Amino acid sequence: MRILLVDDDPRLCDSLGFTLKEEGFQVDVCSDSEDALPWIRQNAHDLILLDRMMPGMDGISLLKKIRAEGYFTPVILLTALGELTDKVIGLESGADDYIVKPFAFPELLARIHSISRRPRNFEASENLNVGDISFDPVRLLLSRGQASCSLSKKEASLLEFFLKNPGQTLPRAVLLSRVWGPDAEVEDGNLDNYIHFLRKRLRSVKSAIEVKTVRGIGYRLEVADV
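-> structure tokens emitted (226 positions)
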């Protein structure tokens, strides 16, 4: 499980990040909302631990922004504000859970495990329509007009990630982590093979969309004007 920790307290980030890694989590740390936004838009994390009170864009503002942009990664708010109204505001802004500082690590760990057990199929309930194609993430079906083809689970996961990030250069490490999992032992060549398969699928429905190689970095989904 890959976690993004967003907090402006360096001591908390050091101690909490270390303890989470000891528990087997992969952890990335950001000190403010501006640093966190590019990470969140990569859709590479399974959970975000988000401090509510930060300089610049606060946690609630960041949460509202990413939800409005269509990013539904689960979020646990970390905050010193423990009044009922504060919790209601956090949850109504799109948080999945709320924990008040100072907190005991076993409680946070229990909340992380609770969220990880929740089904997330609601994210895949609607088709993704980008450029000239439509993708059904439930039936794993790629279509353009009357033409369609079925995808394998790995192909579908890869295509879904590209469709949620059109025009963005996605590093190889991010793609491998998102599709195969952060702890999976997978060779780089597997990614290249599935990119090849995905390109064949797009050609089979005669789509103008292309998966471009960004040499030395990764891949980018380019969507032509239609």
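The longest helix spans residues 188-204.
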